[in-house]
Amino acid sequence: MSVSVRLRNSPINSPKSSPCTSPRFLHKHPRSPAARRSIMPVVVIHGGAAVVSPDKVQLKLEGVKRAANIGYEVLQSSNGTALDAVEAAVKVMEDDPVFNAGFGASLTLTEKIELDALIMEGTRMKAGAVAGVSKVANPVTLSRHIMEKSEHVLMIGDGAHKFADEVGMPATKPEALVTEYACERLNYFKSFMTAVNSGMGKSSDHDTVGAVAVDSAGHVACATSTGGITAKQEGRVGDSPCVGSGGFADDFIGAVSTTGHGEAIMRVCLARHITGLMQQGMKAQEAAVAGLEYMKNRVQGYGGVVVVSNKGDIGVHFTTECMAWAYRKGSVVHYGIQPDDDLTEDGSSDSSPL
Ligand code: ASP
Fold it and tell me: Which parts of the sequence are annotated with region: Disordered (predicted)?
């Protein structure tokens, strides 16, 4: 005997439903005029989840504010998209030696530069990423070339260098990206480390850069760039270039960029996890907090995130001691570095490059 069970309110079982009228397909696409009307473009920046020494606090804050202002101006320009904004903002921080990305990146245990980066756009969910590169000053831009000019998502090492050459990016000597501060940090770690892994899980040694943005058309994007964790093993790749871990962007939900202990972030797919929570109805801030709590409880990992929903709702949270962050809304820049900071200043005059 067969028993047919009809689920109450189930669109699949309702005699009037058809696949095309299922509520699942009735979400307004973010590009539709109705969805677009109320979106105020915004770019949200992080400068890495870490412990920041007092002499670096001001420099980090200046750096994230500058990146937020530059990203915002890109969003305000006539053709500026969320994708352009996150690339421009991350580039500013890659060029700024106070951050662990591009010039100023952390070094491997063997004193090498190995950079990782990711960029992703939410419309077609296209992504480009690099891992273990040392001859490009702006890995975020190389990632964008990979996204737009290759069939691939992630390229590594020498293959990525060759591709950079093919698309006309100038080659940089790896030594040109090394700063005195990166060497000091490596020596400090070497001086007390008994094993590289003893330093990897600590909440003190992560300071990647990242940005998320939504533009007035409701498109979202994310970008993340890093030198990885100081004294990492040669060949180690962290979360930053991995879609769903170091970042994620989907116009139907929003965008996330992460920082923190890469091994933990990869194991919980932090960026995708947070957008999943948003998909279930959480606001960006709630999802940021819940995602990081999950990572802490589930795999004992610490970090930080910036989040934006496709409606411009913002989330900023970290479980490390500090994370420099900033965003600009209208002429006001919001920023902070300690938990619960929300400082503000007029941003209309500060967008000069370094
Ligand atoms: N997540 C990066 C990594 O593990 C480090 C960081 O965020 O600073 O490579």
Answer: 1-33
Residue 327, H or E segment = strand 322-329
Tens digits of residue pLDDT in 21-56: 444 434 455 555 445 556 899 999 999 998 888 999
Torsions phi, psi for 196 (to 5 deg):
-55, -40
Q: What is the CATH number of the domain that holds 194?
A: 3.60.20.30
Asked whether residue 178 is assigned to any structural domain, the reply reads yes
Q: For residue range 119-139, what is the model confidence (pLDDT) as tens digits?
A: 999 999 999 999 999 999 999
Q: Does 67 reside within a domain? A: yes
Task: List all residues whose CB is within 6 A of at least one atom of ligand 1.
Answer: 48, 100, 206-208, 226, 228-229, 238-240, 259-260, 262, 265
Q: Among the residues of the chain, which ranges form H helices?
A: 33-36, 54-76, 82-94, 139-149, 157-166, 180-192, 196-200, 262-268, 270-279, 284-299
